[in-house]
Design brief:
- There is one protein chain.
- The radius of gyration is 12 Å and the shape is globular.
- It is an all-alpha fold.
- Helix 2 packs across helix 3.
- The chain has one domain.
- It is built from 3 helices and no strands.
- It is 53% helix and 0% strand.
- It catalyses: RNA(n) + a ribonucleoside 5'-triphosphate = RNA(n+1) + diphosphate.
- Belongs to the RNA polymerase subunit omega family.
- This is DNA-directed RNA polymerase subunit omega.
- Its EC number is 2.7.7.6.
Length: 66
């Protein structure tokens, strides 16, 4: 089971595509640095850790101001 849930994550980032893209990019960064931004991560996998960072508000999408 995915923790945090997709519904909880979509409260932070509305688009599933954007959510997946950010998580994948961050997971690649974590492979090289292993510098997780959340304490006591529940996941041992990079994508899971990236999703936990998004849920914790450490990663976000900067909205364009028009």
């Amino acid at each position: 089971m995915l923790e945090p849930s997709i519904d909880d994550l979509q409260e932070k980032i509305k688009s599933k595509y954007t959510l997946a893209t950010i998580a994948a990019k961050r997971a690649r960064e974590l492979q090289h640095t292993n510098n997780v931004l959340v304490e006591n991560s529940k996941s041992n996998k990079y994508v899971g850790q990236a999703l936990e960072e998004i849920y914790a508000g450490k990663l976000f999408v900067k909205e364009d101001s028009k």
